Amino acid sequence: MKKRILAMLLAGAMVFSLAACGSGNDSGSDSGSGDDGGSSGGEMNIAMVTDSGDITDQSFNQTTYESSKAWAEENGVEFNYYKPESDSDEARTASIDQAIANGANVVVLPGYLFAASVIEASELYPDVKFVALDMGAGDILEKGVGEGYTFNPDDYDVTEYYNTDNVYCATYQEELSGYMAGYAAVKMGYKHLGFLGGMAVPAVVRFGYGYVQGADEAAKELGITDEVSVEYVYGGQFYGDADITAYMDTWYNSNGVEVVFACGGGIYTSAAEAAAKTGGKVIGVDSDQAPIIDTYGEGLTITSAMKGLAVTVDTVLTEIAAGNWDNYVGKIDSLGLVSETPEENFVQLPIESTQWDDGFTEDDYRELVAALYNGDITVSNDTAEMPATDITVTDYGSIK
After folding, report:
1. At what angle do helices 2-11 and 309-321 cross, to 10 degrees?
2. How many other C-beta atoms can be found within 10 angstroms of the C-beta atom of residue 303?
3. Using H for helix, E for strand and C for coil, what is the string for the chain?
4. Distance in angstroms (rounded) separating the CA atoms of residues 330 and 214
5. How far is CA 203 from CA 5, 127, 189, 234, in A?
6. What was the pLDDT predicted at 19?
7. Burial of 381 (0-12, 13-18, 19+ CB in 10 A)
8. Is the pLDDT of residue 116 over 50?
9. Alpha-carbon distance 364 to 157, whole Å?
């Protein structure tokens, strides 16, 4: 019943604008007899392609892989995943080519990095259904328009740049879960916060600016705006390394940062390594990252700002199997809050692993979500400039 309710909610969600060849590809499969594939009338054969990471990244790729694989196993449908040979548009498109050559007719693509591939593959394979997660109009237009793109999607008709007849795109209102995380951190008693983003792409910026807004609001409610501050920086990449770890060491050791929101694929490794040395804390992103971040130190993760990747995959695949692809295809949905109940939303904090305390209890969280859902609290999704705040925010730009 819950899946059916979520499917109905997603179908009605707000619409805001959606391996290289040979043995070099890593791939896996789980096969079975498929049900009707929806409007194409054939059996479903699902493929998932990783972006610049892999299926063990404890983030976007792993969540998408695990949810796609679980759905395929439950429904007796063939499933394979593909890992491109390199981090390039050409390699990602080559993996899509290989997946389709191997029989895939539903291809799940996690992340904005697939924009160029969607533009090309959607035209080349009109009978294949493409499910593009975390890909918005701006991502498609940046690749489709190329040089001269104004970075304002409203200046263009995005439907002119890809085949809308076989693509569904879902973006997420990251600013909401970022807000929840920043609000929670200050309510829990942390006053010197940090934000370590991967690259300054729209999704990461929305997380970061939401985080700042949430911290600011919590500080206002507590009457401590003069005591709360946020250090803000991008790593310039979606993975941690020695240079970024050293930067985090300085934050935790010299600058007195207490908790860092590590937002961007595997970049959490640098924050976790530095925090583990000093007793600092970390906030995860995309999925509940406590299981992996806490391997660096017990109790390191105070919460995670999550996206509902798993429920999106589960819902859309279920709807395709039921013949309801027409309810999704051609849309670019912006998924956020669909209920006062946190667990039913596409952006949320993890109930089980968040370190609730007297300052911010689970009940407080549920009240916060209800206030956001009912419009009592509004969060800006503007990525043009840092939000105005009463707390002090220091923006360092990018480490690299």
Report:
1. 90
2. 28
3. CHHHHHHHHHHCCCECCCCCCCCCCEEEEECCCCCECHHHCCECEEEEECCCCCCCCCCHHHHHHHHHHHHHHHHCCEEEEEECCCCCHHHHHHHHHHHHHCCCCEEEEECHHHHHHHHHHHHHCCCCEEEEECCCHHHHHHHHHCCCCCCCHHHCCHHHCCCCCCEEEEEECHHHHHHHHHHHHHHCCCCEEEEEECCCCHHHHHHHHHHHHHHHHHHHHHCCCCCCEEEEEECCCCECCHHHHHHHHHHHHHHCCCEEEEECCECHHHHHHHHHHHCCEEEEEECCCHHHHCCCCCCCEEEEEEECHHHHHHHHHHHHHCCCHHHCCCCEEEECCCCCCHHHCCEECCCCCCCCECCECHHHHHHHHHHHHCCCCCCCCCCCCCCCCCCEEEEEEECC
4. 33
5. 27, 30, 27, 13
6. 31
7. middle
8. yes
9. 42
Instruction: Name the nearest CA neighbour of 110 among 292, 288, 313, 262.
Output: 313
Which residue bears the tokens 């919590």? Answer: 218
The CA–CA distances, whole Å, from 253 to 212, 240, 267, 383 equal 22, 18, 19, 30
Give the lowest-confidence range in 26-40, 110-124, 184-198, 266-280.
Answer: 26-40
Q: Does the structure show a pLDDT above 80 at 7?
A: no
Return the structure tokens found at 382. 């503007």
Alpha carbon distance 294, 317 (integer Å): 32
Q: Among 5-14, 133-142, 359-368, which stretch is predicted with the lowest mean pLDDT?
A: 5-14
Q: Which residues contact 386 (CB under 8 A, 6 or more apart)?
A: 209, 212, 232, 393, 395
**Structural tokens at position 21:** 């060849």
